[in-house]
Amino acid sequence: MSANGTTRTAEQVTREIAREREQLAAAVSHLRGELSAKTVLKQHAPKIALVAAVYIGYKLVKFMAWQKAREAAVEHVLKHERS
Q1: What pLDDT digit, counting tens, does each position of 2-29 carry?
Q2: How many whole angstroms from its chain centre is CA 74?
Q3: Fewer CB in a 10 Å sphere around the end CB: N or C, the chain?
Q4: Measuring CA to CA, how many Å separate 4 from each of 1, 7, 8, 9?
Q5: How far apart are CA 57 and CA 55, in angstroms?
């Protein structure tokens, strides 16, 4: 007898077990995929950090060069306005 008081046939129980087995297999497969991705990320974390640091450094140097050029242009314009 089931929790709601109805009787299930052997075929119904077998189908339910098969369905639950498929759901469990899918969940295990999904979990393995997540663990695999985390393992790969852990293995490559130092490389990823280095690439990120180099990229940030490049962008910072580029920004500083742009800022210096902008300040020079503003100074040039102000110099011409005064004369």
Answers
A1: 566 678 899 999 999 999 999 999 999 9
A2: 42
A3: C
A4: 8, 9, 11, 14
A5: 5
